[in-house]
Amino acid sequence: MELFWLEHKKLWQRGSVKISVLLCFVYIVIFGSILSFQWFSFGSSNDHTSAFGNYFDGYSQIRKCQEYSLEYGGSLTDETLQQMVRDYQRIGEAGMEAELEKTDQSIINGWLGTLYPELRDESIYQTMTSYVDTKKLTGFYERRQQAIETFLENSGQTGAEREYLLSMEGKVEKPFRYEWVEGWSQILGSTVAEMGIVIALFLAIVLSGLFAGEWHNNTSSLVLTTKNGWEKIAVAKIFTGLLFALELFAVLSIGSIGAQLFFLGTAGWDMPIQAIKLIAIAPMNMLQAEIYEYAFTLLGAIGFAGIVMLISAAVKNNVQALLLSLAVVYGPMMIDQYLPYGAQMALDLLPFVGSGADIFRTNTFHFFGRIIWSPYLLLVVPALIGVVCMPVAVMRWARRMRA
Amino acid sequence: MELSLDRLTKHYGSKIAVDCVSAVFQPGVYGLLGANGAGKTTLLRMLCAILEATSGEVFLDGKEVTSMGAAYRDTLGYLPQDFGYYPGYTAMEFLLYISALKGIPNNIARKRAKELLEVVGLENVAGRKIKTFSGGMKQRVGIAQALLNNPGILILDEPTAGLDPKERVRFRNLLSDYAGDKIVILSTHIVSDIEAIADKVLLMKKGKFVLQGTVSELIRKVDGKVWELEVSPEEAREWQAKATVANLRHEGKQIVLRIISDSMPAKKAVLCEAALEDLYLYYFPTEEGVQ
User: How much is the average pLDDT of B212-227?
Assistant: First the structure.
């Protein structure tokens, strides 16, 4: 235990670790959450003096949006959709552009594009919300069902797989609860979903030196001639790496959730995720989806930490360990799109290569005749890979020195 | 306590670093003397069980050391040639960290680290980061860490490298005090260190022990082979090219050369008393590494 705390202290004594965590916090929490809510994403528009074109008033703007959405009764039906679109058009016609910002315009426009494509007029440059005939916005849930079935057919998902996905969809409660969606869309589609990519970079920077650093510092032979220098220190290093992954995750998630609670509150937590992406089939509400995405990030971090530590134990050079670690996550991301679908799916199982946003998709894995919805495996497999890497890292560390 | 090497060999590809070396070490100070590349560090790393031998074995009291694992490492203190440290650590933090690696309980470790910092003369800078230390101070931290667990076998690879003369004397005294019933093996190419403290010297050349014995026994090997010759500066240059010259001393306009030679190099040459350095030069006349 003492070794573990000493190793942990040693890790945090490195300047690069402190700088990495600070940069990560600034990027994810300060820029990705606080400034994004207050300025980049939700500040009211038309500030021509600002680089982003927005005023620094996201907090009050978000409240206006949330209050406005409550006017539609909390339930999404043909009538409420028609009313929302009608109100949007009325405000637009009255020239009250600033008022338009409190509507869920981009979300509603997405719904219209998905469910009522025949109403799109290519000759009009404005969004569909501003010109569609509201009387034609009927059969919302029937059309949605049709859209899902068409999508599955186009994706080649037929037979048992189709039945599996549709039975999952059948558990989605209808009509959907509705409150302001844009904030949740930002969190689930961007803030949390992309957190892993940044965490991967900084985990690689910090943990690639965990074992390899002993060669970098010329301390390996010293360490390995001590009583506990073979396995015990390696185990302490593994737990240190794991704890660091948890600490980094905790710092970022607590910061992000704190910012979320401050700016958005908890309103709309029980809306289904279908409010963000209509053809999603998962019976999940926003809160469940957020928990999933955070769990995905946490388990991905554990998995990736395991891989980085294995690489660090297997090579004797910090830079080599860093580059190999980065290649494990960013390499597949770069080549993914050029590979066959099966290979893409397999690579997605590597930590952080897949996406937590798969809960909005209908991807599946087939194992020995069983169909498994991809988010289940994307959650479990990366962590398992990491767990398998950890004892191998201990063995590599012990063996490497005697070569 | 007895540490023995049985036909210990290490190959790196086609290069033979240590060639079928056998020896027995009992309590005392052993000086491993050899030029750079003679195989000293490779041998010491195998003794520490951090480098696998190509063939041969190391035994401690009849037990093969790699099979002893932690029990063997518990008896070991090691100062590697390129002593590494963690730049962000203070001297005290570093010693406490190594103590933990050596399995020394925290309360004992703190006391022992304090004592050793005093012994190596670093007690006033215990709280300073090692990266701010001079080369000699860092080396003293290295010596202190090797002694933390009061090891029965102390292996020091070039321990006096980077130490100034005063620090070297302090180190020699420290080692003499420490040795007692312990096995101390130190490798160096600084002959005077060995001469001052080693009970027994092992001369290593091309991976083999070419000579073993006490300092006086070894010096006897070159008795009658060390000469002094007074020459002009021009002649001195010629002698340096054609003979092994151990020393060169100006006396007025003339130069007195110390020449190692099996036979009298010149009629004017005078036989003189041999030293360990002469033996070293006798065996390594063309190789680097003597100071």
Answer: 91
For the stretch B11-40, pLDDT in tens is 999 999 999 999 999 999 999 998 888 999
Angle, to 10 degrees, between the axis of helix A209-216 and the axis of helix A286-314? 30
Question: pLDDT tens for residues B55-67?
Answer: 999 999 999 998 9
In chain B, how many domains are there? Answer: 2
User: Measured between CA atoms, how close is B66 to chain A, in angstroms?
Assistant: 11
Structural domain including B231 reads: 226-273
* Rounded (10°) CA dihedral A357, A360, A362, A364: 30
Q: Tell whether A228 is within 8 A of chain B (Cβ).
A: yes
- Give the residue from A314, A334, A338, A316 showing the smallest Cα distance to A326: A334
Query: Which residue in the set B49, B88, B100 is minimally distant from A3, CB to CB?
Result: B100
Instruction: Report percent pLDDT > 70 for chain A.
Output: 99
**Cβ contacts of B162-168, under 8 Å, gap ≥ 24:** B162/B135, B162/B136, B162/B138, B163/B136, B163/B139, B164/B136, B167/B121, B167/B136, B167/B139, B167/B140, B168/B193
Q: What is the pLDDT of residue B291?
A: 39
Numbered residues of chain B with Cβ closer than 8 Å to any chain A Cβ? 45, 48-52, 69-70, 73-74, 76, 78, 80, 82-89, 96-98, 100-103, 106, 145, 149
Residue in chain A closest to B154 (alpha carbons) equals A225
d(CA B184, CA B199) in angstroms, rounded, equals: 10
Asked if residue B167 and residue B244 are part of one domain, the reply reads no
Partner residue facing B97 (CB), from A6, A15, A403 = A6
The per-residue pLDDT for A71 is 92
Split at pLDDT 50, 70, 90, the class of A274 is very high
**Identity of the residue in A6, A402, A403 whose CB atom sits nearest the CB atom of B100:** A6
- Chain B residues close to A233, C-beta within 8 Å: 101
| Interchain contact, A219 vs B86, CB within 8 Å | yes
Which residues, 6 or more positions from A272, have their beta carbon under 8 angstroms from its beta carbon?
Answer: A172, A173, A176, A177, A283, A284, A285, A286
Domain boundary among B200, B218, B236: B218
The answer to whether residue B41 sits within a structural domain is yes
d(CA B168, CA B158): 12
Same domain, yes or no: B78 and B184: yes
User: Is B88 inside a domain boundary?
Assistant: yes
pLDDT per position as a tens digit, A124-180: 999 999 999 999 999 999 999 999 999 999 999 999 999 999 999 999 999 999 999
| A13/B86 CB distance under 8 A | yes
Q: State whether B102 and A6 contact (CB < 8 Å).
A: no
b/e per residue A197-211 (b: at least 16 CB within 10 A) = bbbbbbbbbbbbbbb
Burial B216-251 (b: 16+ CB within 10 A, else e): eebbebbeebbbbbbbeeeebeebeeebbbbeeeee
My answer on whether B239 and B214 are in the same domain is no
Contact A378, A348 (CB under 8 A): yes
Round to whole Å and give the CA distance between A166 and A328: 35
- Burial of B24 per CB tally in 10 Å (0-12, 13-18, 19+): exposed
- Of B74, B87, B106, Cβ closest to residue A2: B106
Give me the CATH number covering residue B162.
3.40.50.300
Mean pLDDT score of chain A: 93
Pick from A14, A375, A393, A20: nearest CA to A199: A20
Instruction: State percent of chain B over pLDDT 90.
Output: 67
